[in-house]
Amino acid sequence: MPAYGCAHLRERRHHPDVLEYLERIQATLDPFHGRFLVHGPPAEVVEGDWPGSMVLIEFPGLAEARAWYASSAYQEILRLRTDHIDGDVVLVDGVGPGYDPRERAGKLRAEAAGEGD
What we know:
It contains four helices and four strands. By secondary structure, the chain is an alpha+beta fold. It has a four-stranded antiparallel β-sheet with strand order 2-3-1-4. The longest helix has 15 residues. It is globular, with a radius of gyration of 17 Å. The mean pLDDT is 94.
């Protein structure tokens, strides 16, 4: 099942270090089969507040996403971004084919019903 690296980056700065990070990041993703799905266009905010931009990277699975983030190649360039751009980054499993949110609702209802016991 695919997994994703999601970043909410605030107050982007085009510092030379950030540009170097951008030039080098793809080489860190390639061994883990990571690919950009979204890379920083302004978001169309339809609810709430979203200062900054979003990055979404797809991996074959959570193991690959974790291995990429922990890799020496990525850790070597990470500060080029984090020293100049504030943000939040999460790694998350995707849902498989046939995912039905009604099943999730049923599980949550069952859990909630069990909490009162």
